[in-house]
């Protein structure tokens, strides 16, 4: 690749570093407000990251070349790596964490995965808790921007929702990209504020309400308590409120903009939204009925916790209101299946995502029809939009790569002596950006703190691969990518 592409990529990454350095003053102010001397560590971290970023920016500034796909692939990877490393700096300095654990925690935050190596959260300094939550909130903005604006251009993972619903039709949410971006940020901030107010009114402390809202809307799942949302497990209205917010955050933000700004009720009939809400309802009802019949659990209690935990799993938030593995093998099986699925494209959710299942199902259905009528022509459609062969090929390429990486990650983890359940679920929960897995170590009642550094780096890579739609990362490791 022409070296002229490296300079603008480093320059843009340095700007990202400056934004991160500025954000570090928020937890510094938080610690200062609560009388904690850790504010000095956050200020030091801000100056270190800011100084390095400023130096890199000054050294690489200049007129950028024309933007193309190869530059886009490299830029996405470098930005998220910069985001992750910068996020780890305060954890190393303020929380005195080894770099491997700090990097894992930072990657988990910016990819909104929600897995953690930190224990003793209930007594943790407020600034560190705020930084973890803030990383997830900022990561959520980056994720939606990535899915709506960058990946459609790169044609990664099939076709992103904004490309499908807007760019290929005459009915765009807004004529100008700047207007669309402003509307997205406004809705994201408004939902966060509404979530803070709701949590506060329903019984959370002010600090807990702010932190949990900052991790609910990006479907991140970091909590201020070791028991996650189980700390509030008896607060039924709060559980239902969180369920609603997690579900909304799993919907495409371009659709939310059409609905809120343009009052487009028909936008909610999008195929991936219908499918997502459908399989969520199936998971929730099946589990509640099973808990009632098999365990004699009160149906409303079972429905409440089932709705909360499956909305958390399918939105890839990662909160847990209880140890749902104690509900029996049927629940464990459904949880394992839900870990793969995910929410909608164009949202902060991870996983395979609902729109890919729509494409896969319609492609398979067209294939069966052609077996019966081989001379007929059947178009694969997403709603009223015809899907070309490139999109179909990209979806199946993503899926095959996704499954291969899951099994490869599980094999590496098992090589370090972990049991099959831990290895398989730790790998998929990282790749799907879900958070908790299954088993005593990485299940909803555990965390990743006992895993060796090498495994943490492997899981960090899987989290980045899953968040960047797999192919975005794989492509830069091919020799063809670097040829002039």
Give a structural overview.
With 484 residues, the chain is mostly helical. Helix content is 64%, strand content 1%. The protein contains 19 helices and 2 strands. It has helices spanning 6-23, 25-33, 39-60, 69-93, 99-110, 126-154, 161-167, 177-201, 206-216, 236-249, 253-262, 271-295, 299-314, 329-341, 354-372, 389-414, 420-431, 453-467, 471-474, and strands at residues 381-382, 385-386. The protein has a two-stranded antiparallel ribbon. A hairpin with a 2-residue loop joins strand 1 (381-382) and strand 2 (385-386). Helix 1 runs parallel beside helix 4, helix 4 runs antiparallel to helix 6 (126-154) and helix 5 (99-110) packs parallel to helix 18 (453-467). It is globular and about 70 Å long. The chain starts with 5 loop residues before the first helix and ends in a 10-residue tail after the last helix. The model is unreliable at 157-175 (pLDDT under 50).
List keywords for this structure.
484 residues, mainly alpha, two-stranded antiparallel ribbon
List the helices and strands and how they pair.
Elements: H1 6-23, H2 25-33, H3 39-60, H4 69-93, H5 99-110, H6 126-154, H7 161-167, H8 177-201, H9 206-216, H10 236-249, H11 253-262, H12 271-295, H13 299-314, H14 329-341, H15 354-372, E1 381-382, E2 385-386, H16 389-414, H17 420-431, H18 453-467, H19 471-474
Antiparallel strand pairs: 1-2
Strand content of the residues, in percent? under 5%
C-alpha termini separation: 4 Å
Major β-sheet profile: 2 strands, antiparallel
The percent range for helix content is: 55-70%
- What's the overall average pLDDT, rounded? 86
């Amino acid at each position: 690749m022409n070296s002229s592409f490296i300079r603008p990529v480093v320059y843009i990454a340095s700007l990202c570093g400056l934004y991160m350095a500025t954000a570090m003053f928020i937890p510094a102010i938080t610690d200062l407000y609560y009388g904690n001397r850790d504010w000095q560590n956050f200020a030091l971290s801000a100056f270190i990251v800011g100084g390095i970023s400023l130096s890199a920016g000054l050294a690489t500034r200049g007129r950028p070349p024309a933007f193309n796909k190869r530059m886009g692939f490299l830029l996405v990877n470098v930005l998220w790596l910069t985001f992750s490393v910068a996020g780890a700096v305060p954890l190393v300095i303020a929380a005195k964490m080894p770099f491997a654990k700090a990097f894992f925690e930072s990657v988990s935050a910016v990819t909104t995965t929600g897995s953690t190596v930190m224990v003793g959260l209930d007594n943790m300094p407020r600034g560190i808790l705020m930084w973890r939550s803030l990383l997830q909130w900022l990561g959520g903005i980056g994720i939606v921007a990535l899915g709506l604006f960058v990946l459609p251009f790169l044609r990664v993972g099939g076709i992103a929702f904004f490309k499908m619903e807007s760019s290929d039709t005459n009915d765009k949410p807004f004529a100008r990209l700047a207007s669309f971006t402003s509307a997205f940020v406004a809705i994201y901030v408004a939902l966060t504020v509404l979530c803070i107010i709701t949590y506060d009114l329903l019984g959370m402390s002010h600090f807990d309400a702010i932190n949990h809202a900052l991790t609910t809307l990006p479907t991140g799942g970091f909590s201020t308590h070791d028991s996650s949302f189980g700390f509030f497990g008896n607060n039924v209205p709060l559980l239902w409120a969180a369920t609603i917010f997690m579900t909304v955050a799993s919907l495409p933000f371009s659709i939310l903009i059409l609905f809120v700004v343009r009052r487009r009720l028909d936008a909610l009939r999008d195929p991936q939204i219908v499918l997502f809400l459908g399989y969520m309802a199936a998971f929730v009802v099946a589990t509640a009925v099973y808990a009632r019949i098999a365990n004699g659990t009160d149906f409303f209690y079972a429905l409440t916790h089932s709705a909360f935990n499956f909305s958390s799993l399918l939105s890839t938030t990662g909160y847990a209101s209880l140890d749902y593995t104690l509900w029996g093998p049927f629940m464990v099986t459904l949880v394992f299946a839900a870990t793969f699925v995910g929410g909608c494209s164009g949202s902060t959710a991870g996983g395979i995502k609902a729109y890919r299942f729509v494409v896969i199902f319609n492609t398979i259905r067209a294939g069966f029809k052609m077996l019966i009528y081989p001379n007929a022509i059947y178009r694969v459609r997403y709603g009223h939009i015809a899907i070309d062969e490139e999109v179909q090929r990209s979806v199946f390429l993503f899926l095959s790569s996704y499954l291969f990486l899951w099994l490869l990650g599980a094999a590496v983890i098992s090589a370090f002596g972990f049991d099959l359940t831990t290895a398989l679920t730790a790998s998929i929960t990282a790749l799907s950006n879900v958070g908790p897995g299954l088993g005593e170590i990485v299940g909803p009642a555990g965390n990743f703190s006992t895993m060796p550094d090498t495994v943490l780096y492997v899981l960090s890579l899987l989290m980045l691969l899953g968040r960047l739609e797999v192919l975005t990362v794989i492509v830069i490791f091919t020799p063809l990518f670097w040829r002039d």
